[in-house]
Amino acid sequence: MATADTRPAVVALATDIICVVVFCTVGRRSHDEGLNLVGIAETAWPFLAGTVVGWLLSRGWLRPTAVAPTGVTVWFCTVVVGMLLRKATGVGVATSFIVVASISTAVLLLGWRVGVRLMARG
């Protein structure tokens, strides 16, 4: 169970995971793919692996809500590792998809951190 010390990191990691799953779910919906748990998991796992890599590289638990370096590293790894894993498993990585995925995940993974920062100032 999360303690008071670990709660911010657990919540931030969970938020990142939810953002990636939302991105994958919306993508599947926009392409008329099935919205079932297995389909969403198949689409999300490469990006979620990238999210975990980003958390480890940035040591996200130290500054979980920081836009930089945590958010930027998590976002970058989510996209790059996700695309590399998709390519390695024979799933599409068209240039247009890379652009859309990069923008969408930036809005989601960086956006919530910007929101937290703005709320902390206010």
UniProtKB/TrEMBL annotation:
Membrane-spanning parts: 9-28, 34-57, 66-85, 91-112
UniProt KW keywords: Membrane, Transmembrane, Transmembrane helix
Pfam families documented for this protein: DUF3054
InterPro entries (UniProt xref): DUF3054
Keyword Transmembrane (UniProt): yes
Keyword Transmembrane helix: yes
Protein name: DUF3054 domain-containing protein
Protein's organism: Mycobacterium deserti
